[in-house]
Amino acid sequence: MPKETKKKKKPNNDQDLTGLVAQRFAGKPLRQPNYSMRDVPKANPDLSHSSLYEISSRDHFNDSMAEFVLLCNEVMRRKRLVSKENTAKPLSLEYMADRLDVDDPLRGFMGFITVTTFTNWQESFRWDSLHPSAFAYDEEDLQQEMISNTRKWDRDGSLSKELQSQVRCGDPWNEGIVYPKIAEISLLGGLGCGKALLSLAIERLENMTPTSEYNYDYVALQATDNSIPFYESMGFVRVGAVTDAIPENKEEEKQEKEKTQIVSSPFFIVHVPKHGETPLQYAKKYNVNVWDIIYLSHFLYPDMTPRSPLMKGTQLYIPKVEKKEGTDAEINASANATQTQWHDALDNETPREIAKKFNVLLNDLLTANRTRIADLKANSKLIEGTRIQVSNLDEVEEDVLPYIHWTFPDTKFEDNPDPSYMMVRKLNRKRKPYDEAHKVENSLAVKVNTEYNPDDIPTSVVKPKEEVTTTKKTKKRKRHPEQPLQPKRPKTAFFVFMENERERLKKKNVKIAQTDLARVTAEHWKSMPEEIKQPFVDTSIQLKLNYENAMKVYNQQMVEFKQKYPDWTEEEVVVTKTKGNFLNLFNKVVKLTKEGKRLAGDEYEYYYVLTYIPDLFWCHLAPMRKAGVFTNKKYSGRTKWMLVDESEGKEIDITASACTVVKSTCTKKCDDADKEEWNIVDDTKVPVTTEMKQAIVMDAQKTVPKSPSPQTVVDASLATTNENAAVTETVPVSANSSDDEIMIVERSEKIITPQTLEEKSPQDREMEKKNSKSMQRTLKSFFGMSKN
């Protein structure tokens, strides 16, 4: 997974909530295990005293998704206990949900590891370890490790060349470009069992019988920073991958094109001249793998096998084999000798100065770099970090970006400029005796079980009472020619700033490539004060309003479209829905229920909801800490709450049913949640100033009529608070208290469950009525009100 930056506030509107499941089907509420991951012991290397299950059902993985994310969190927590170094964030729930929904085929083992066929959605994707852009975005420490060979990588480019020559085919706008000869470890997590599970998965891949859809010779994966040494010990090496950057003037043109196009490795077509010939004969004739022929042809002939007799006139798709010129050693030596060199420009450095520094002709340097930086001139002042090609100037270098895994055709590089660390291992597909072929499995102390029943897993989550069928459009569905185009999502404040910088630099005749602009402006944005960012924030808010208006028009157009084309129906999927209004937990302050504290611990009292996935009914929470007291008049003496720094690794994942919303006010709003300050209404004694007491009395007098009825609510906040939020009452410490001190307690805590909004029973209403009368008598006594 790419690294995650500082915590940012999540959007707080229903439209953005649907975007969280934009690349997958809506799911069902996750099953919260009724045990704490902290109680799970580390597995033995041979898995003794453990159970091992092999899974081939997607549903089984989905039912265990909550355990997966909690296990990953626990792995990171234990690493932090033994190492002071910063550890990478664990796999996110959103990423897991996407992979488990989209990966096809999907198999693996509980504990856990999942395996699929390598697929990407970038038309221009290619394996290339020798391209200068492949590792261009590495941080300095990683660059030094690469240079010193501390990291294992495809130094001569031979492995990337093999991978690039593999057969592939697919639609990047739908099912993706599939590489049937490359498997992928998509998810892996374990408490001491990672090596055993990965070894077993590799052994399974090496012994797998080829089919028309896969015949694995390699296994790839995307590594996190902390996992790199582990994968290197398992025989994986880093391999470079790149994609073409989309020129700014062609981006809109690409979006308007029909989003259906097949991308394939080179091939040619052969028409079978007579009956009875087989694919195996043609594989021998053209010196190619028969399963490559079958894969390219299986879209037309899904039941084809190597020895299938073919009819006269049958079209066979034969992969083209690239001819070698010279030996492998000669090719690799030539590639290393001619590798292009780059220079990162200093601030205000000119091409003239760079040409002199590297002893190259100025005109050659300008010509080579103008493909990336239009109108580059000898005295153009460059922004610090702009990459300038300084060797092989007679070769035109295209604008290329390092590859980011699990991104889609319309994803912009600047949306997440953090390239993936791709690693690959070559599989040993030679036939071996049975004992040797199953060496890993035989070395384990337990047998592999294939009978797995997820219903046996106990759960503390209350399931919704009803399920309804709704529709959701899958990304594998083609678009109707007359279907309205959905408005583009509004730009964030950062991208408004970046566009502004691009225009400003153009006016000043400062040249910079699009790829460099994203990197440089991101650094500037991070260091800018909040007051300078504010105009861009205001602009992004206006763009968001425009987007919402455009969405209203789009929704109306979609209604008319569906009326005109009723047969153009969307695929039906079962989505769990609940009665009542939608509960939005984004950016809320919550506390854990008793069950939640049992599962996640009681180290912290309050949490901030960083991420809420409504269909999965799941929250990612950041704990909150006391940060002094407020000194302003409105909240004077109240405890100030802020988020615990994410570097401490205290964030948790938990079902939303374990969260209770707490009444709170954000007194300092920022784009960065870490900097926000909160006033939380809790149940502890707090000193009350004269001003606060007067304000409480004034609020009560505004709300309570001169002759209050038994149903009158005294506290003004009760009249406006949504019944789904926690409601507060002000109560005296004692009836005769003369101290400027009151108790603020929660009158009604609403636990967030799918049944929260169900109609109240008559008994509940009668109990609330009695509580209300009792509370009013207490308040009247405190404020000196006479009884009626």
TrEMBL record:
Domain HMG box, residue spans: 487-555
Chain intervals with Basic and acidic residues compositional bias: 757-771
Biased composition (Basic residues): 1-10
Keyword NAD: no
CC terms in the record's Gene Ontology section: nucleus
InterPro entries to which the protein is assigned, alphabetical: Acyl_CoA_acyltransferase, HMG_box_dom, HMG_box_dom_sf, HMGB_plant, LysM
Pfam families registered for this protein in UniProt: HMG_box
CDD domains the record matches: HMG-box_SSRP1-like
Gene Ontology terms, MF aspect: DNA binding
Subcellular location: Nucleus
DNA-binding region: 487-555
PROSITE patterns associated with the record: HMG_BOX_2, LYSM
Residue ranges of domain LysM in the record: 341-390
Keyword terms of this UniProt record: DNA-binding, Nucleus
Lineage top rank: taxon: Eukaryota
Region of interest (Disordered), residue spans: 1-20, 456-489, 753-788
Protein name: HMG box domain-containing protein
Organism from which the protein derives: Chaetoceros tenuissimus
